[in-house]
Amino acid sequence: MSKPALRFWLIVIPTAAIFYLSLQATLVLRYHGQLAYDALDAHYKIFSIIFVIWLLVFFIHGLFDVRVFRRYSSLFFNLVSAMAVNLLLAIIYFYFQPNLILTPRRILLLLVGVAFVLILLWYLLVKYIFKSRLSEGIYLFSFNNELSELEGEIKGHAFLGFRVLGHLNQQSLGQMALDKNSSIIFPDNLQASPQTAEQMYQLRTLGVRFYNHKSFYEQLLRRIYLSQIDELWFLENIDYQEKRFYNLAKRAMDIILGAIGLIFFLASLPFCALLIKLADRKGSIFFVQERVGRGGKLFKVYKYRTMNSWGVTNTWTSANDPRITGVGKFLRKSRIDEWPQFINLLFGHMSLVGPRPEQPHIVEELKKQIPFYDERHLVKPGLTGWAQINNIYAASLEETRTKLQYDLYYIKHRSLLFDLEIILKTIYYIFTWQGR
After folding, report:
1. What parts of the chain have a pLDDT lower than 50?
2. Assuming Cys at both sites, which of 23, 269, 342, 418 could form a disulfide with 261, CB separation 3.0 to 4.6 Å?
C-alpha cells in the first residue's frame, strides 16, 4: 500500500470506527447498559446513515487530508466546525423523520461530545505517528543543483512526512552509505548519464525507492512542477482528445445545478440590487466584463458589482482592495457576487468546475511572460476551481504562475470524482468565509 493510501486509511477507517464506538459509549452512559437488543439494533441502523453523512462533512472540512495535521489550531477548529455541522445535520435528519421510534435528542449532544473527544485524541496520535514513524527520508540527486526548488517545497511541507537526508551527485552516489528504505529523487536529465543510471539500478536491491522529480512534486503538492516541464510533458500527460462521456455528464450537471442556481440568483436580485445601490448609487448593479473561454473564445461574464463605481477597472483585485465596498466584501466572502454567473453556466460559456477565466488583455500579456499559459484554455473556465480552493488568486505574476500549476494539475487529472471533490470543498470554503 502506498504511503498516501496508508495515511488515508489511518484517518478514515478509524474515524468511522470511532463514530460507532462513541454511539456505543453514549448508549451505555445514557441507558446504563439496559437498552434492549432490538432498540440497540435500531440505533445502529439509523445512525449508520448519519455516520455516512458525517464522514462526508469531515471530507469537506479537509479532515481526511494530511495537510490538516500541519497545525494544532487548524486541526482543532476544523474538527469543532465539522462536529457542529454534524450535530445540525443530525437534528435536521431526525426532525424530518418524526415516525422514528428513537428519541435521539436525548443522546445527540452526548454522542457529539464523546465523538469529538475520541476523534481529537486519535488525530493527535496520528499527527505524532506521521511525524515520528511514517516520515520518509529523501536524498536529492542532481547534476547542477537543479532540484533546489523541490527541496524548498519538501522542507516547507514537512508535515506531509518527507525529510531531506542529503544531496547526491555522480561522485557521492557510490560512496555515501544510504539509509535503509530511503528514497532518491532524480531529475529528467539522468538519462544523459547511463553510468549513473546503472549505479542507481544497483541500489534497488537495498530497498531504495526512486522518484522522478516532476512526479514527486505533483504527488506532494497536487500541482504541476511548472518550471521543469516542456512540450514533451504535455504530449505525455495531457489528453487532447474529446472526453465524450465526461463532457456529457459534466454538461448535464452544469445545466441541472445552473437551473437551481438561477432560482437563487433571481431570489437574491432585489435584495442585492438594493444593497449595492445603497453602497454606491452611481454604479450599475451588475459587473459585466469580457473574458477568455475554452479555445480562446471570448464571452461576457456577469457578476454583482462589489466595487465603487470609480474603482471598476480592468486591473487585478488584490487582498483588502480599497475599491471594494462594505457590501462588496460580504458578497465576495459569501460568493453571492458569483451567482449571476449561473447565466453563463446555462449558456455553456462556463462550467461549474474549471480554471477561472481572465480578461483578454491580461491573457495576452501572461502568454508572453509565462510559458504554456494558453494551455489552461483547453477546458471551459469554471465558477470554482482547483486553484481557488487552494487559496490561490491571480493578483500578481507570481501568484498567476502558482495558479497555473493548479490549473494544469486539474486539466491533467480532470474527472467527475475530482470535480465532486472540488465542489464539496468549495461548499466548505463558502461556509467558512474564505475568499477574496
Report:
1. 1
2. 342
